[in-house]
Design a protein that fits this description.
Nucleotidyltransferase, domain 5; six-stranded mixed beta sheet; homodimer; 2 domains; alpha/beta
Amino acid sequence: MQTPVSIILDWGTSSLRAALVSRSGDTLDSRETQSGGIQFVKDGAFEAALMAAVGDWFSSHGPLSVFASGMITSRNGWVEVAYVDAPAGVAELAAGTRRMTLANGAPITFLPGMRDPAAKPFPDVMRGEEAQIIGCGVDTDRTLVLPGTHSKWARVEKGRISGFQTYATGEIFSLLTKHSFIAKAQDPEPGNGPLWEAFDRGAQFAASDNAAADAFFSAIFSARTGILAGELRPEDIMDYVSGLVIGSEFRQARAAGWLKSGDTVGIVGNNVLNSRYGRIAPLFGLEIEVSPADAAKRGVLMIASQATEI
Amino acid sequence: MQTPVSIILDWGTSSLRAALVSRSGDTLDSRETQSGGIQFVKDGAFEAALMAAVGDWFSSHGPLSVFASGMITSRNGWVEVAYVDAPAGVAELAAGTRRMTLANGAPITFLPGMRDPAAKPFPDVMRGEEAQIIGCGVDTDRTLVLPGTHSKWARVEKGRISGFQTYATGEIFSLLTKHSFIAKAQDPEPGNGPLWEAFDRGAQFAASDNAAADAFFSAIFSARTGILAGELRPEDIMDYVSGLVIGSEFRQARAAGWLKSGDTVGIVGNNVLNSRYGRIAPLFGLEIEVSPADAAKRGVLMIASQATEI
């Protein structure tokens, strides 16, 4: 068995995920706990929460180096780490880390998030996604998309992340299907998997030449008119809206200059949404590169290795 | 006092509004009841609900003619009236009415909604707005916007409504400010009226030359990044988002071909949103025409007068 040398924390608002990692970067053990999520930790007792989650790893293996990223480094977290401005690569992110020593003598390094001061109307921000991007490799200039509640479109140039933009796509999908007129119209069939035909129908309209597809506030009303017209069934709605919303993200990202037909785009992360994004990309003339599933861990280790040399 | 000759019903899902009207079209009395809303009426007891609301008007004035529009004419209402296809004017809408006689001998006429078979991706629909448009007068060719939960952009040509498109703007605003990341960020100050400076800031970005404004899913994230950047205060958020969302409706409607700089656009209805729409229109180079407050009643009477002649 390999020897553990570090603990990597993906520490967010709703959960704490921890990985016990070897020198070669292999994951030897991993845990996820809801109770460690920032919103559940009272009175700033983050160190106690960490020990409750992985104290036995320290007991067994000594004062391992800890590397933490995610909302734990935000204003509401343990240690606020200032955003590093784009353009930034491994060196700039490593220089932006903050280090402390735990009561048990283990060093803990908090990784910074990133800020794009050129984004409009206000500088954009991310915490955690920058490590995923770094972990995918930054040797080749390209555009990347990171699907999620708040998707990111990012550009890698000359070994650094040169800019990025947040799209609240996942949240808008959730709002529409949980709380809007659509919530009443739909009839999901859990467990049956995506109805790809319905998904494609929404996506194809979003990718079409029709100018009406530029009007998302209107296009989304098609979830009702499609039922009225007998073109959609209640069980189609969830996937139809998914295709329409994600397709609209691509359409908007194209309008904002993040993609054009013929580009190759990397899809980053192992989010369940990635297969949906991969299905839509060709409708916009894009070639897809799939990222390694452990991109986040790789990125943290790359940044961490430079940070600990400083 | 003038003699009442008819009762006009604006009968929707959540409320029943009734007006007692003279021959010259003046409103002599009016009432609104929540309990008469379609969703609260059990077992199809619509006639009983009508009598509970305005039975005394019949007792006092005899079997007055009743004209009903709104969701009461939909599949979930009292009498389903088929949509009349665009293009349609007073004559076509009058021909699409359905008439019944109440137990007390009063004739009740149900007005049809309208359908635009040319809308993409599916035919669009409305119930009630067509009467408002007719009531504004259809002598002049022009574009109209009807602000609301589901706003309509409509075109009047040659005395008829030639086409229209629904924008779920009000609903999207409500979802975002009630249920999204924005709900936590905002700090509304009820009773202080709109913070127009914040409203204008959102609207101006939506109307700007910046291509990022074409990406609504991204632009809306500025409600968070504006706070982080110290550019917006929590109390600004509600009106900032209002300006951004309504401004985005105009931007999308422009992309979809409903408006261009230099046009004159009518704002229809007496919705509280109208002042917000009127404030944004000049940012898109539009001249505004305000509609009469009683456009809906006028329209119903114009359609009704032809319907009862048939």
